[in-house]
Amino acid sequence: MSNPFREDLVSRTRPEPCSVVIFGATGDLTHRKLVPALYNLAVDGELPPGVKILGFARREKSDEEFRAGLEELNRKVSRSGHDEEVWSSFVQSIHYHRSEFTDAEGYQRLAERLDEIDRERGGKGNRLFYIASAPEFFDDILEHLKGAGLNQAKDGCWARVIVEKPFGTDLATAQRLNQVVNRTFEEKDTYRIDHYLGKETAQNLMVLRFANAIFEPLWNSNHIEQIQITCAENLGMEGGRGGYYDKSGALRDMVQNHLLQLLSLVAMEPPTDLSADGVRDEKVKVIRSLRQWDTPEKVARNVVRGQYTAGHVDGVSVPGYREEDRVDPESMTESYVALRLLIDTWRWSGVPFYIRMGKRLPKKATEISVHFKPAPGVLFNALPGGLPGSNVLVIRIQPDEGISLRMVSKIPGTSLRLEPVKMDFHYATSFGKSSPEAYERLLLDAMAGDATLFARRDEVEEAWKFIDHIEHAWHQAGDEAPAMTEFVAGSWGPKEADELLKQDGHEWRRL
Amino acid sequence: MNEVNPVHPELGREVPVGAIDHELKKLWAEDDARTNASLINLAIYSEDPHSLESNSKAVRDLTVEHACRAILISMDFDAPEASIRAWITAHCHLHHGRKSVCCEQLAFALSGRAAGRLHNTVFSHLASDLPLTLWWQGELSWVFDDRFARGVDRFIFDSSEWSQPQDSFAKIQEALQARKALVVQDLEWTRSFQIRVSLAALFDDPVALAALPSMGKVVIRYQEDHRIGALQLLAWLVVQAGWKPAGEWAFGADRAHDSACSFAFESRGGHTLDVVLESVADGPPLQLLSLSGDAVTIEVSRQAGANYLCRHLAAPGHCLEEPGPLDPDECVGLVREQLSRGGKNSLYRKILPTFLELLKTVG
Question: Residue range A462-485: average pLDDT?
Fold first, then answer.
């Protein structure tokens, strides 16, 4: 029997009562993102009743100590502030479970504890396992969950797993990880989280494209000249990030997941419906259709990698990448990458997609810009300067989420002079209410069994297949490896990245 | 932007009705550092001649979250002279501490026979292409007719303000039948929103859901001015749970004291349900919704002064107590919530016939 009182109250799939087990519960992600997200859901009354949160980690802690640490961070970072009344009720649902990730007995005790919670809750034993630990423990955790029978849902219940990135470090490790995951949980119960997909503007991309009749007829190679996706960060390797980043690099850390996900949302065909697989079927086709840069020559022609040297960001002196804390002084890891991508489909034939991602760029900004072909200039070519640029649709992902459209307009006056003008939509201006954090939406979706905003196995593996060719080319020995370029921190990247677009007669959009 | 006016400082600058557009342009030209934003036309209609200033304050509050072109209308039918006066101003708010976003406000005071010129003078100042949300304050008068309803996309009212609710609801029903696209939003129904959400959340619990067919008693406690809200809540329970009247709906019990009435229903499982509506003199509008039967009790309650609803579920060996968010009581807060939620409010349309039956029974 379904709950008759739910009808028409909330227009989203209903999250179900469950226990949420977080592996890596003493880490930053749990304290800064996951628990504040669950708390905000409690404030909004969105959490299903009787949700229990179990933090699983190695350090010795009591429930009280664990809760105190969470409270301290929640006070600082929670989107909706910290309300004592809600917290005091919410915190009762949080418990700590100490165990090594490799200790089978710890998982048996976890199973017993979860059964006990189910009995207290009086019925359903839904379980959501969130693996927020360091990646080297993924295998152990999954194997031990299976060993304790926790991967098997009881009748009428479910057991799901959320896996944090990185989903492997290349195709082989991703395939292996996926095998381990799918040996433990079915694909339908596996939720690979990419928090970019939980952002409001990323979700709005499909609405923009498919709920507005004016865009879709133009969304193809007949009308679009090029598309750029930029993810700029002004931060470097603060807070000890260098240790992880130097092993990963911009391509694997950001492009393989977040930026290729955005690309697939921009380029996909309309799905047949809004079901998780309906949407993901179309997304994966985009990744599959990427022309492969499978030789060092092709990589050298289409991909630029770089590292920043010492410079200034926001008026402050910053060190070069190789001088950063926990970074190898002879590192060959890219802190910047720019790519030209081609999608071999009817819709996108001949349209270059340019992607760039970099640390220590002048500002923090993530956006997608769709550059339309210029209007035939027959009428205005004779004017001094001709047409001042073409139409550009910009979808800002962060910060200042919104959409703008550049158009050409006549400057008021007796003579005919044309200038670009901008129509701008800001979420914050039009909707005064703040958007929920990406993790709030994604956690609710996982509790509700809606995997639309999570990456599927084939998406992840296809993305790695594309990325691997580039990584292999970069790791060629000797002169065959495409060069590592340099740029001054606080600038917009190496000149070679500008050249990449110049060859096609384009240039990077100024942010 | 100069908002000084000796008569109505809150309303901004008084302008001739025929020069409103021109004056608005001048207003914006004075300060080009500000952004003009609007997603809807929000008209507030009142037949209280002194409502403009308080409604301007309401708009100032609403525009923090809802960018709109606001149009305030006050009607004074009893004034001897026919006159229309107009004021313009803008409500500006800082977003992220830097960008100043402003919403235009036009205020109209229509007096005497000029009240008949509402359509020609006021509704000609809507921002084109944007939907019209109209918040009607007070009793539904003769002004609310078919022509009026046709021009509105979303009609907001508070049925708890009505002294003759049956007559007013009849008008609303007519308007709904005449125009399928009209969205009506009753603030009295909004007052119960979070109570309904909380009850629905409690019934997400499998123990509660399994106990629903065997529920035997329902209690709704309300503050005496919010009988309509209590009846709407009951209508919702009846419609959603599929309860049927057990024989004649009797308005029984304690009618002499007017503090309680009871109804009898039959659940889908054939159980008899006793429903008691209790009114109290003070406290929040809706204070308790309780369902019980077969040793299971499910309650959503609200204490005076509390910031949250209390969700409570008790079953053998199983107890749950959680806070749930609360709806505001005052109208401006409720309108803000309604504008945020949007939607077609189809549930209200669905429960309306049952609610009207209950209202007729109670009298």
Answer: 90
Confidence at residue A217, expressed as pLDDT on a 0 to 100 scale: 94
Q: How confident is the model at residue B5 (pLDDT cuts 50, 70, 90)?
A: very low
Looking at the fold, whether B89 and B203 belong to one and the same domain comes out as: no
DSSP 8-state code for residue A17: -
pLDDT at residue number B3: 39
**pTM for the predicted model, two decimal places:** 0.81
Question: What is the CATH classification number for the domain harbouring B130?
Answer: 3.40.50
CA dist A45 and B194 (Å) reads 9
Q: Three-class SS of residue A423?
A: strand
Report the chain A residue with the minimal C-alpha distance to residue B347: A8
Helix segments in chain B, DSSP class H:
20-29, 52-62, 146-150, 165-178, 187-190, 193-202, 206-211, 227-241, 331-341, 346-362
Residue B255's pLDDT is 47
Same domain, B281 and B339: yes
| Pick from B63, B209, B343: CB nearest A3 | B209
Indicate the burial class of B339 (C-beta count within 10 angstroms; 0-12, 13-18, 19 or more): buried
* Domain containing residue B51: 7-187
Q: Clarify whether residues B49 and B146 are in a common domain.
A: yes
Residue B205 has pLDDT above 70, yes or no: yes
Q: Give the model confidence (pLDDT) of B67-109 as tens digits.
A: 899 999 999 988 888 889 999 998 988 766 666 778 899 999 9
- Going by pLDDT thresholds of 50, 70 and 90, the confidence category of residue A122 is low
pLDDT for the residue A414: 80
Superfamily of domain A197-376+443-503 in CATH is Dihydrodipicolinate Reductase; domain 2 (3.30.360.10)
Cα B38 from Cα B52, distance rounded (Å): 20
Residues of B in contact with A43 (CB under 8 A): 325
Q: Which amino acid belongs to residue A143? A: E
Cα–Cα distance measured from residue A222 to residue A266, given in angstroms and rounded to the nearest whole number = 16
Listed by start position, the domains of chain A span 19-164, 197-376+443-503
In the prediction, which pLDDT does A339 show? 98
Whether B303 and chain A come into contact, CB under 8 Å, resolves to no
The domain defined by A19-164 carries CATH number 3.30.70.120: no
Q: Is A247 annotated as a binding residue?
A: no
> Based on the structure, what is the number of domains in chain B?
2
A199 marked as binding residue: yes
Taking the Cβ of residue B343 and every Cβ of chain A, the question of whether any pair is shorter than 8 Å is answered with yes
More confident residue, A179 or A123: A179
Share of chain B above pLDDT 70, in %: 92
Catalytic residues of A: 258
Given B126, B160, B187, the domain boundary residue is B187
In a domain, B121, yes or no: yes
**Is A425's Cβ below 8 Å from some Cβ in B?**
no
